[in-house]
Amino acid sequence: MKNKNNSVNLTRFSQTKMHTKIACCVLATFLCSSNRLQASFSKDSEGESYKFPGIVMKTGFAVTPSSQKELEDNHRRSVMRAVAEAAQERAQTAKLIFAFKHNFLIPTWLREELPDEVSSQLMSFNMYDIQLSVAKPLDEMRNTITALLYFNGLETDPLVASMSPASRLVRLVNEAGFEQEASSFEKAKTFALLAMRLDAYNTLGLTHGDSNTMMGALYNKAAQEVSSVASELPAVVLADLYTSAGQLKRWAAHRTDDSRKKTTYIVDSLELFSKARLYTDAAENGEALLDKVKQEQHFALDLFEEILLGKGLIESGVKKFIASRRLEI
After folding, report:
1. Nearest in space to 243 (alpha carbons), one of 197, 212, 278, 215
2. What are the contacts of 117-126 at 24+ separation with CB within 8 A?
3. Measured distance CA(108)–CA(161) in Å, rounded
4. Partners of 63 in the beta sheet?
5. pLDDT surpasses 90 at 59
6. Would the pLDDT of 77 be above 90?
7. What band does 13 get if pLDDT is binned at 50, 70 and 90?
8. What residues contact 228, with CB distance under 8 A and at least 6 apart?
9. Partner of 47 at 20 to 30 A CA spacing, among 41, 56, 178, 199?
10. pTM of the shown model
11. What are the distances in angstroms from CA 312 to CA 26, 184, 260, 272?
12. Strand pairing category for 44-45 and 48-49
């Protein structure tokens, strides 16, 4: 009986020992897994620490710091793209408005600066108190410009309308390079250059008479601008100044078809050359400038003789008068 009890106890001890081993193995395995899991929780991803891993949903979306950064980057790129598109549209609107003004509108200050013979030939475009703005949508500006062209009796296509003679003349004036605050010398230069460009009257849809009228007025305006500053300059430059003004007056007389203006311009030219001769001694290149003035005086007298003969005066009397004036040179 005792042996039987001993045998039972031995069996129970063996089972207990085996269970203990199994428990130890399970505990060791759990501890090892726990350490690896804890280590994975404590890792940094690109310098970012987090205490809990992202939960991957069925949609595949994970809410993590890296995904949050990606969302912010995408949003920033979307905003930048929208800003760029808005800027591009505004630039296109500005280009459209500039082209419209360049082809159809003359600034008020410039229209007032131009001689009446020129400003009267320019298109009078009615804006109907409409203001063009780059802040408005491009399509809205296109529709507005189309309507303005229509109500001004022009082709509604801006490109086609810009090919009209009226638009070409406006464009020519705008391209001359006038500046509101320019000096008298700069204005004189611009007036003269515009006059020269009007010589291509065929391409502008002008008649030869209209072209001559405008050119004469522009050359005269240039001469007036040059002469207007004579009182402000030293004597050393006055010979050159009066010579330039005299040349411009002679060109004006040559171009205009108006008989009265022709006579006025050529007389003014001769008077300016006479003033120039008074200051040649004070000029640095006095001798060469004097020769230039004398040549210009002869050119002016040639034209003066032609003008007087065109008035039907007695030829012998005209020639005698001109000859006497040449002796003064």
Report:
1. 278
2. 117/213, 117/214, 117/216, 117/217, 118/173, 118/214, 118/217, 118/218, 121/169, 121/206, 121/210, 121/214, 122/166, 122/169, 122/170, 122/173, 123/166, 123/167, 123/169, 123/170, 125/152, 126/151, 126/152
3. 22
4. none
5. no
6. no
7. very low
8. 184
9. 56
10. 0.73
11. 135, 39, 14, 27
12. antiparallel
117's tokens? 């013979």
Confidence of residue 283 (pLDDT cuts 50, 70, 90): confident
Mean pLDDT is lowest, of 18-27, 225-234, 307-316, for 18-27
Q: Look at the block and give the residue holding tokens 């004070």.
A: 282
Task: Indicate whether 259 pLDDT > 90.
Answer: yes
Q: How far is CA 118 from the centre of its chain?
A: 24
Instruction: Return the residue matching tokens 């229509």.
Output: 150
d(CA 43, CA 62): 18
The identity of residue 280, as a single letter, is: T
| Burial call 161-196: b when 16+ CB within 10 Å, e when fewer | bbebebbbbbbbbbebebeeeeeeeebbbbbbebbe
Scanning the chain, the segments in alpha helix (DSSP H) are 2-41, 65-104, 108-113, 116-119, 138-151, 158-161, 165-174, 184-197, 208-227, 235-255, 259-278, 286-310, 315-327
**Mean pLDDT score of the chain, rounded to an integer?**
83
In whole angstroms, how far apart are CA 213 and each of 175, 217, 259, 307?
A: 20, 6, 11, 16
Output the pLDDT for position 205: 86
Phi, psi of 48 (to 5 degrees): -100, 125
